Hints:
Elements: H1 6-29, H2 37-59, H3 63-91, H4 105-111, H5 114-123, E1 134-135, E2 138-139, H6 140-161
Antiparallel strand pairs: 1-2
Helix pairs in contact: 1-2, 2-3, 2-6, 3-6
Amino acid sequence: MNLASPRPLFFLAFLACLLIMLAALYLEHVVGLAPCPLCIVQRICVIGFGLVCLAAAIQAPARTGRRIYSGVAALFALAGGATAARQVWLQNIPADQLPSCLPSLEYMMEALPFQDIVRLVLHGTAECAEVSWTLLGLSIPEWSLLAFAGLLAFAVWQAVRCGR
């Protein structure tokens, strides 16, 4: 098996996403850090990226298929990176400029239309700006942003190398 072929690389990207999710679940269930709405969106993006890579690894598509899988994976990485960047920005603005906290997701699902829920969740809140854990001086959203940059680089590289 050639490790540089697209199939095992897509599978390794899936495994990377699996490790990212295991780390997130560890921080939530063992360390006790509850995810904010922006963290949940980032998790969805990691899962989406991972599932696209798993599908590509299973199917082993030809050149056009690899480009399509890489493009869809890149969209998940861009969405997750944008969400992580928003959260990093929220963590760096003064506390008096932060948006107020949201009602519970259950209440919003009952009381608001879906597009309003999405807008409110993606806007972020004061809860999203709280830095409650760091590793090597970087907060969780900063690590998430780095991970999404790596995932995006992988997706672009997979798409570009398809032409060879």
